Amino acid sequence: MSNNQRLVYIALLASQAVIIGLVERMIPSPFFFAPGAKLGLANIITCMALYTLPVKDTMKVVVIRLLLQTLLAGTVSTFLYSGMGALASFLGMLFVKHLPKVSIIGVSATGAVFHNIGQLVVASLVANTFSVMLYLPVLSLIGILTGIATGIAAHYLLHRVERLHYYMDLKTLEIDDMKEVRL
Amino acid sequence: MTRFFKLATVSDVLIILVLIVISFLPFAVFYAQQSSGGERFVVITKDQTVLHEIALSDIDDTEQITIDSDDGHYNTINISNGEVHMHDANCNDQVCVRSGAIDSPGETIVCLPHKVIVEITAKDSTDDQEIDIISSFIFTKGLHYE
């Protein structure tokens, strides 16, 4: 993949994630009984990036999305919460993806739960009390369900959008190349 | 619907189970912390200010505490034999009276209409901030129920 092609693809994924995030903010939360719970549709893009781009470029997508979303619709405190959430979910998804036989559904559910964990860790540090963490089961059970749903969506995107096959093939090719160089 | 479930593998199901366990870890840590403390205290809070803080071991017999407010609201709390219960209240839902007696650290009786919280803690290091956070969660949840 040429450098320009890669840049455009990263920029496209990041901007799609920002737009999906902004549109999601306009939809009233379906989880009225649990303040703070949301659908996390932008997770679809992170999953797609994880499966079609190298780790370094996936991180670029996540960071660009985070910064743009904060500039467009956030404050410093939401940046702290979503930043820590994005970092935790990215690391969790990366780890789970390397486990054997895990499909995109497990990766996406892990991302959702670790996003909540990251957010609540920041919240309990800000409030200086551990009891905020007791809210985790409510958020993460909803997160697992929405994570499964976004995982199914990402699975169908990866399999039905033909252009993405090209990037997936490229990624496996690149990994094979690196292995050969090391050998 | 079944074709969606066919996408998931056995490891996915295992991961989801692990995630559910992880999400309940804070409860385990919280109760381990609370039960390790020695002395139990009753903390009575109204409008997020602490009114009474009594060690359960200081009360030999039965003690009755009444929380009155200017607008005619009252809550009567009975403490006896290491147990605490809301004896009487003139709130409109009576949830606090019906919630029964509490005796172990971390348990609470909440009277939402009068904003009274009766809580048992293991130590007397209950800083006001902690109560603020707990009660704000209770109040936000309570608001969503109404």
Strand content of chain B: 25-35%
Radius of gyration of chain A: 17 Å
Spatial shape of chain B: elongated
Query: Could you estimate the helical fraction of the residues of chain A in percent?
Result: over 70%
CATH topology name of the largest domain in chain B, in short, is mini-chromosome maintenance (MCM) complex, domain 2
So, CATH architecture of chain A? Orthogonal Bundle
List how many beta strands of chain B DSSP finds: 8
Name given to the CATH architecture of the largest domain in chain B: Sandwich
- Please tally the helical runs of chain A, counting DSSP H or I stretches of 4 or more residues: 7
Largest interface: A-B, 34 and 29 residues
Overall residue-averaged pLDDT value of chain A = 87
Radius of gyration of chain B: 20 Å
**What oligomeric assembly is this protein in?**
heterodimer
What can you tell me about this protein's structure?
The complex is a heterodimer of chains A (183) and B (146). Chain A has 183 residues and is an all-alpha fold. Chain A has a single domain (3-164), classed as Arp2/3 complex 21 kDa subunit ARPC3, CATH 1.10.1760.20. Chain A is built from seven helices and no strands. In chain A, helix 1 (3-26) packs across helix 3 (55-73) and helix 4 runs antiparallel to helix 5 (104-127). The longest helix of chain A is centred in the last third of the chain and has 25 residues, at 136-160. Chain A is globular, with a radius of gyration of 17 Å. The model of chain A has no long low-confidence stretch (mean pLDDT 87). With 146 residues, chain B is α+β, with helices and mostly antiparallel strands. In chain B, the strands form two sheets. Chain B has a four-stranded antiparallel sheet, with helices on one face. Chain B has a four-stranded antiparallel sheet with strand order 3-4-5-6. Helix content of chain B is 38%, strand content 32%. Chain B contains four helices and eight strands. Residues 124-129 and 138-146 of chain B have low confidence and may be disordered. Chain B has two domains: 2-34; 39-145, mini-chromosome maintenance (MCM) complex, domain 2 (Sandwich). Chains A and B meet through helix 5 and helix 6 of A and helix 2 and helix 4 of B.
